[in-house]
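Model the whole thing, not chain by chain.
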Amino acid sequence: MKAWQEALLAWYRQNARLLPWRGEKDPYRILVSEVLLQQTRVEQAIPYYRRFLERFPTLKALREASLEEVLKVWQGAGYYRRAVNLHRLAQRVEELPPSFAELKGLPGLGPYTAAAVASIAFGERVAAVDGNVRRVLSRLFAQESPKEKELFALAQGLLPADVDPGTWNQALMELGAVVCLPKNPRCPNCPLAAFCQGKGDWGRYPLPRRRKAPEERLMALVLLGRKGVHLERLQGRFQGLYGVPLFPPEELSRREAAFGVRSFPLGEVRHALTHRRLLVEVRGALWPGEGEDPWKRPLPKLMEKVLRKALPLLAHEGVVSLPDAEAHGVKPL
DNA sequence: AATGCGGGGCC
DNA sequence: GGCCCAGCATT
């Protein structure tokens, strides 16, 4: 084993954060943690990890739950396909297969998550390359734009013999998460500083690829019926969750005609996604249908904003219960 | 290889 | 406001 590998492992033994899934043996619980951690910071994932496992403690419990129930627990965590895929996975297999190759075929498990579960839960010697590992290795070996395949081959070759692969993978990720940071890396505190070829100008490794999120204009139509708001199951973006009709502005007249209403403006809502800046004009109308209480459904954050903007309409005749809304963090204007 | 998919924290 | 996060699926 090389000196830098010893240094990393020694650092990890001393500095590993105490996280709920550290030391966990149950492969299912490790899987849940890894899926929740996809593109999600540790601090954000922890409460969902606890909530999810309290409600679905085993693969069997998850399998027997309804998708909507699963989404309700996932509400707020984002990337809702992860929840859908986890639910599908539970239907697909009785138990988690103990190998990287088999795990990688399951819904929602790509190369990273399959490798993470295989190495951490089952001890398989396979490298798990996430954004942290990519950044750490890019800097350590001064690689500006390493390709994914090369990076995996490199990481695979770096797995030390006689070290638990799950521990090694986590040590590399931990370093990236708390020392080898994207913006302000703490090189003076880094156990690998003496070995790092990219330390001088860390900004080059890896080279950031920039793109700015374009703006997208949409309209949201809040229809207030006798018993509440008209909700649809959303398609595409926010798939599986619920919300009011959301569409491009040019569809307004067609939508109004379909519902038999004339709408009026309630205000604008801005919502930033990673690759889009949404500018949503919220419109409302009284509608002869029934509708329902929206706060009982899994809603994306955008729809919470839309409904908050529509609060003056919702308060109309007290059809929608404001206490329910406030329980969801919605405050009157 | 590029794009869509959430939400939150940090600068 | 931009950037990034223990990525995956689709094209």
